[in-house]
Every structure is written in C-alpha cells, then in structure tokens.
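Input sequence (229 aa), recorded before submission:
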Amino acid sequence: MATGGRAALDKLFEQELLYPAVALEAGIRGEVVVTALLAPDGAVRSLAVGKQLAPECDQEAIRVARMILWKPATSGELCSGKEVHLAVPFDPGRYKRWLKERVKHEGDRFAAPVDTSLAVLQPKQLEAQVSPAIPGGMMGLPAFIGKEMRYPNEAMRYSLEGTVKLEFVVEPSGSLSNMHVLQSVGGGCTDEAMRLLYRIPWQPALKDGKRVRSVLQVPIRFDLPKQRQ
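Predicted structure, token format:
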C-alpha cells in the first residue's frame, strides 16, 4: 500500500503530475496503469506500464510513480514480491484546475539544480534544512497554524483536544508528498492538520548544492478555543 493511502496519491498527482504538452494540446485523456513489483520491505523492484495511453503520458506516469513510498509487508503477508497496480489519471480539465490551485513556490533555492536520485534524506544528512516560506520560518509555524486553523465542528462538539503528528516528504519542487499520520486526534483534526500543511509554500532542503527530497515530521496542537466569560 502507498504511504498515506489514496489521499496521499491523489495529492501527489494534484501537485506533481506534469501533463505532457503534446498530449494536452491533442486533448488526450484517460489513465495509465503502472504495475509496481514490491519487495517485502516496500522497496520497488521494478515499474512497468501495464495499460498505455500515449508515450509521453506513459513516461510521466512512471516518473510520478517513482516518487511514491510504499509500506513494507506486514507479518501476515507473504515475504515475496508483491504486484501493485496504480492508475495515473490524465484529464485536461482536471489538470488545468490543479494548476490554478497549486501553491506558488518562490525563492533563491529554486535556482539550484535538482538531485535526480529520488533518495529521501533525513534532516541530519542535509546542508540546508526544509523551511516553510512564512514569516519566521519553522519558528513562525505555530503562530501561522494558530491563525489559519479552522477548529473542526465535530471536535468542538465532543470537546476533543490533542496533537496530530504528520510525516511527509518535501519534494525538490517544494510540494509535499507521501503524507501520513503518526498520531491522530479524531473529530476532523487530522484532516485539518493536513489542509494547513498543504497550503504552506515550502522551501526544499539542499545537499551538495542541489535540491533534494527530505522527510519531515510536524506536530500540530489542537486546543479548544477559550470560552468567553
């Protein structure tokens, strides 16, 4: 299973898929089905196009599929190669909506070349850490979240408080991928935490002068609003 499940896959397509210009102009639409052969530890042994659409779309589907992190096999699963089928959508109308909704990424870091290894690095391996492009950077994240948070109605109704902890990959493009929950609260708080993080423009990490993929964990605290006296 893909890390973060269906929701993370949909976000990956929404933020990272690049519709080939020739296919977009020709109005080509449909889906490419990519077949991934996975090892028990979640490593990808091979990727192949199982259902073709157009050569350019097939190539882009493979590129995006390589960005997915897969969960290791559980103890109840066979410790042998597992085949997974992934449908990558190509819809001109939907793609144009995605482009309008994508967060704009600006800054000097985006002038740096991109590391093409697709390796996901840990914070201690980086020369320059990931940073949200908001006032105060990482230090300003709690204030930004506090200002932008919409406390879920269901959580309010049941007086739910707590900390949602999310882990995700910050891509060289500044978008977030493979987001999944390490700690949840319920009552819509997890969905709200994800919404907040996705809407932030992020500065990617640097290693050897290149923009790289890196993993980050962020806790988001949900405290019920103070009742007015």
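Checked by second reader. Residues 111 and 208 are 14 Å apart (CA to CA).
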